[in-house]
Design goal:
Blueprint lengths: L6 E2 L4 H10 L4 E6 L6 H11 L4 E7 L1 H8 L8 H9 L6 E5 L5 H7 L3 E5 L9 H9 L3 E5 L7 H9 L2
Parallel strand pairs: 1-4, 2-3, 2-5, 3-4, 5-6
Helix pairs in contact: 5-6
């Protein structure tokens, strides 16, 4: 599977990032759970990719998704979620991280641009995530949330609620 080559371990991330720098590639980084891939995710990832040369997706591990989203989540395993993301043309690489926050992942990824979706501002991002991006000389961009396009909404519809 070609998409398997897009999967990076956190340990491999510094060398991968250094290679992108040598090639003068603009690296856009985003992260999330991406539990049930839907139109909102695909739109968001495509928009993120257009912001640079390379899109690296940090993927919350199963344990961190459970902590963030609650019982019954994730629906899909981290390996399955990583493979689905890696199969997307807009995604250049995927790295699963175990932490609740993306701070350590961002320190390793050293984004030129940190692209986040949601109904919040840069100031509302966790301070440690902002510091990790700023320490690498990166910028932060927020894409507005697409109403009605979330995994939670999709699960409610499936459950008939």
């Amino acid at each position: 599977m070609d998409c398997l080559r897009k999967l990076l371990s956190p340990e491999a991330l510094p060398a991968w990032r250094a290679a992108q720098r040598r090639e003068r590639k603009t690296v856009v980084v985003t992260n999330g759970c991406f539990d049930l891939l839907h139109a909102g995710h695909v739109t968001y990832l495509d928009a993120a990719r257009r912001e640079g040369d390379i899109l690296l997706v940090g993927l919350n591990s199963d344990a961190s998704v459970g902590q963030l989203k609650g019982p019954g989540r994730p629906v899909n395993s981290e390996q399955d979620r990583a493979l689905v993301l890696a199969a997307l043309e807009s995604v250049s690489a995927v790295c699963i991280f175990n932490d609740l926050r993306a701070s350590r992942f961002l320190e390793l990824a050293q984004p030129d641009l940190y692209f986040k979706g949601g109904d919040f501002t840069v100031d509302q991002l966790p301070a440690e995530e902002r510091r990790a991006v700023e320490a690498a000389g990166g910028r932060i961009r927020i894409m507005p949330h697409l109403p009605g396009r979330s995994t939670t909404d999709l699960l409610r519809k499936i459950r008939g609620r």
